[in-house]
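step=predict obj=EamA domain-containing protein n=282
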Amino acid sequence: MTKKAWPAAALIVGAGSWGVIWYPLRRLAQDGLSGVWLALLMYGGAAAASLILCRGGRCAGVSRRVWLALAVLGGITNIGFVVAVLHDNILRVTLLFYLSPVWSVLAARVFLKERVSLPVVAGIVTALVGVMMLLWRQAAPTLNGFDALALASGAAFAGANVILRAQPDVALAAKLLATFAGVVGVGLVALAVTAHGMPHPPGLAVLAAVVGGGLAIFTITLLVQYGVTALPVRQSSVLLLVEVVTAAFSQHLLLHGALTTRALAGALAVAAGATLVAAYEG
């Protein structure tokens, strides 16, 4: 395999895994682990695994403010996504999250004063039109709470990307640890605020979430980050579409979900617009 083939393969496997991860999440939820509790256990396991990468001071040198910002945004990103895929339409959640390149461009324009090119503007408009088509229910577009969570998840992910663009020296190990630890922190705050009682799932489900889920999240995230870091933005943005494809097919095969013509057109518009933004923004 060539040098570019390894990161491309890693990105395809990682993105495809994100597209089907909803299924084991829902199986664990059936055993009594709610969205926030499930995220807390899985990402706690992933945080423990990520400590392996921090040996030799690889996680040092990041300012407390940057680390905290990455942790909070990482927590919102992943808890929002986990809760949304447990309760909402899988493809809708995936596509609403996939708007993150649009939010990245807008945030970079506001906070980093980066210029926005005409193709990027066209991509933003295309993606937003696609969102309106996806959210269209009966006579008008509507946004339920889980749709909002998916949008917030993508926006938080975009915010973290803008911070990393402004702080390019943050090591991958530090980024992973901040993200995973952030899920634990934000999850504990969410549980305290919402006064969720402690669930009583089978011990095997807890073990599966911490060990199996933690290692899976750690591995998938590492694969995606390796691919995104090693490949040009134009190439990685196209390969990330594998997540959308696997989400659509897995939903159809496992839940027998059908797409309306409007939803299909909206999905294509979001994917095309977000890819155009990511390609020209990089």
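step=describe
The mean pLDDT is 86.
step=end
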